[in-house]
Write a structure and sequence with these properties.
With 436 residues, the protein is mainly alpha-helical. It contains 18 helices and seven strands. The chain starts with 25 loop residues before the first helix and ends in a 47-residue tail after the last helix. 43% of the residues are buried.
Length: 436
């Protein structure tokens, strides 16, 4: 298995990642290309875009200018901040309640609505539906959170059709940011093809209904049924990524949101990553990341170290040490989900046997899977390639574990800042299944 000469991504990363002749991955090259974009021109284009849709909404007497899909996380807060405070939009916030919420995530969702004085429409699936769908998708595609991705990328379009609101504003374009699957220079927008192939894992509602093993009925899958395309075309519904027009810096925006708008981060430590502000609203994400490790040999810490390395806040060597520390950890929340799904850990792992990447995993004579490749023991990057790919580092205080970021990344060097509201420290006690 090859690994990027600059960051920590393997060549089997999902979604598609490419390596060039210098051994540098497409995600790193996309991060480089972002620095060459004329963001002032892009921002003016965005102002013109939202002005057009705002004028149309006012002309028709609509109460909302756009829809913003939200979860309550850092990107949701930043999207709504930009829309309301910078561009003067009247958004309708829409969220799909997947049921796997943290207390901190629910708190931040309430803060989002309160701080920006927005209306929120929330669609929730029934607990039994969530349980059966998660168990089914574990076996079918190795993802207990399939319903979450399917819901958040479907429900906003259902609402857009129902209320005839043509503009949907997403945050950053994750597939460009992470693995460079798309180029920001091409100004990508939402497509139903990407939703089907990646968020829905290529599985349609009729596929589920046709499978007698699913045991699910059409009305239970309503939040994942995409609206009629002809009707969407008639309304002119368009999904726009704000990160294509506006330079997206998750660290700096999170600091601003904490300082000015009451956004709360995880008090730390976490089991699967050192990052305290990313994916803190959904505790099933730890199981999701563990499944990614069991299938492809890497997890959330790889994602986060890649971002830190590309930003000059961390060396590749530091990143490898963190990947080794976090990616393979079995999360304690797995016990909760085994109980929820009504399966044993052996059944959990057996469900994804045929999905393991055999470039990474091999089965021993005792029947147990073992990782035969990892970046810390099979790194093929030569010292010349490594030095040629290395980026300059920022000032010590601004590095990942520097003093200025101590409340946003957990380390053994210093504890994060205590949060102003000690009630959120209940997160240290471990996750709890919350449906509200």
């Amino acid at each position: 298995m090859r690994y990027c000469a600059r960051c920590t991504f393997p060549e089997n990363a999902r979604p598609t990642i490419l390596f060039d002749e210098e051994g540098i991955c497409s995600g790193c090259r996309t991060a480089e290309a972002k620095k060459q974009i004329d963001w002032d021109t892009r921002e003016r284009m965005f102002r013109e875009l939202v002005a057009e849709y705002k004028a149309k909404a006012r002309e028709k007497g609509q109460p909302y200018d756009c829809i913003i899909p939200v979860s309550g996380g850092k990107d949701s807060h930043y999207q709504v901040y930009l829309a309301t405070q910078v561009y003067g939009l009247r958004p309708l916030l829409v969220t799909y309640n997947h049921g796997f919420n943290t207390r901190l995530g629910l708190r931040n969702l309430r803060n989002l609505v309160r701080s920006f004085n927005c209306d929120l429409l929330r669609v929730s699936s029934g607990l039994d539906t969530v349980r059966r769908l998660s168990r089914y998708m574990l076996r079918r595609c190795g993802d207990v959170t399939w319903h979450y991705h399917a819901g958040i990328f479907t429900v906003p379009f259902q609402v857009a059709v129902e209320k005839r609101i043509p503009l949907i504003l997403w945050g950053d374009h994750a597939r460009s940011e992470l693995t460079g699957q798309f180029r920001l220079e091409d100004m990508p927008e939402f497509t139903n093809w990407c939703r089907q192939q990646y968020d829905m894992r290529g599985i349609e509602i009729d596929d589920i209904l046709a499978d007698p093993e699913s045991g699910l009925r059409r009305h239970e899958l309503a939040p994942f049924t995409f609206p009629d395309m002809d009707l969407m075309d008639e309304i002119g519904i368009r999904g726009v990524y704000m990160g294509v027009y506006i330079r997206w810096d998750a660290l700096e925006s999170t600091k601003m949101l904490m300082r000015d708008w009451g956004f709360a981060v995880h008090p730390g430590p976490r089991e699967k990553t050192f990052n305290l502000y990313h994916k803190i609203d959904d505790h099933a994400n730890e199981v999701h990341d563990y499944l990614k490790y069991l299938k492809f040999g890497y997890g959330r810490a790889t994602d986060h170290t890649a971002e830190e390395i590309r930003s000059g806040r961390m060396t590749r060597e530091e990143g490898i040490a963190l990947v080794r520390r976090y990616d393979s950890v079995r999360p304690s929340s797995l016990d909760l989900y085994l109980d929820l799904l009504g399966i044993s850990e052996e059944e959990f792992e057996a469900a994804i046997d045929d999905q393991r990447d055999t470039e990474i995993w091999e089965r021993g004579a005792d029947g147990r899977w073992r990782a035969k490749s990892a970046i810390w023991k099979n790194d093929s990057v030569t010292s010349n390639m490594l030095e040629a790919a290395r980026l300059p580092l920022v000032a010590e205080a601004d590095r990942t574990f520097g003093w200025n970021n101590r409340h946003l990344y957990y380390s053994d060097i210093h504890e994060p800042w205590p949060h102003a509201d000690d009630r959120f420290l209940v997160e240290r006690e471990g996750p709890e299944f919350v449906l509200v």
